[in-house]
Amino acid sequence: MNIAIQGFEGSFHQIAAQSYYGKQTTVECCASFAELVRKVKQQPGVDAGVMAIENSIAGSILPNYSLLKNSGLHINGEVYLQIKQQLMVLPGQTLEDIREVHSHPMALLQCMDFLEKYPHIKLVETEDTALSAKHVAQKKLKSTAAIAGKLAADLFGLDIIAPNIHTAKNNYTRFLAISRNGTAPEPDANKASVYFQTSHDRGSLAKVLTKIADAGINLSKLQSFPIPAKEWTYYFHADMEFESLDLFNKGLEHITPLTEHLKVLGVYKKGITH
User: Among residues 58, 114, 191, 258, which one has the fewest Cβ atoms lying within 10 Å of its Cβ?
Assistant: First the structure.
């Protein structure tokens, strides 16, 4: 399968795509999430997409919820990826040789406890972790290291001289697998993503949440977004976890009369961490 991702070859998006769709997956690299969504919708050679939606430390990527809602695309599944940052160099280089470290600002920040041990090393911010690794390899930059994932080191022939240098070991990013056409839920599907609106009446959202709980459904995510055309009116993105499809379907029946514009984005199996 050819999967659209945000970022460059060797990025964490590619690792997530291979984790979900298999190692033989090829990727269509996109400069932005908007381009990713557009290619999944319109480009015949793109089978599906993998898009980051939230991080366990940084929180939700809010623009992506709106992109997803307005796209008409479907969620087929999810994958949780532990973000492991590696310090990589040209073969033969050592930590003592390094004078600069190149990476995305967020990656540099995630590794600051390690980097502060080497105050003589200059930190250079770039647009992408994997692209930093590619530049070190292609330009044969001696005395320069990159911070990126292991896949980047494998693809570009770099040596990892300091593995897992990220400070927070519980740093996970959740990615959604999205496609033009929805698929029928697997019999053991246990998670769904929906969005809905409620009236502006007092307690309207509380009534919906009570019905969800009464149906035996766990609400694992609730995110609100303003509706631009209506002042102080919101729609909600909800992730629901349940033990059976029957429970979910009954829950939908109970909340439908209490909501407006209810739409199921996808019913799928809860992701596991990689």
Answer: 58
Q: Which two tokens stand for residue 120?
A: 């003589």
**β-bridge mates for residue 267, sequence order:** 192
Domains and CATH numbers, the chain: 2-83+171-179 (3.40.190.10), 86-162 (3.40.190.10), 192-266 (3.30.70.260)
Give the 3-state secondary structure of 182-245. CCCCCCCCCEEEEEEECCCCCCHHHHHHHHHHHCCCEEEEEEEEECCCCCCCEEEEEEEECCCH
274 residues of the chain, pLDDT tens digit each? 999 999 999 999 999 999 999 999 999 999 999 999 999 999 999 999 999 999 998 889 999 999 999 999 999 999 999 999 999 999 999 999 999 999 999 999 999 999 999 999 999 999 999 999 999 999 999 999 999 999 999 999 999 999 999 999 899 999 999 999 877 888 899 999 999 998 877 888 999 999 999 999 999 999 998 887 777 778 999 999 999 999 999 999 999 999 989 999 999 999 987 5
- Which two tokens mark 211? 């019905």
Active-site residues: which are they?
Answer: 173, 175
Q: Reduce the DSSP state of residue 170 to 3 states and report it.
A: coil
| pTM assigned to the model | 0.91
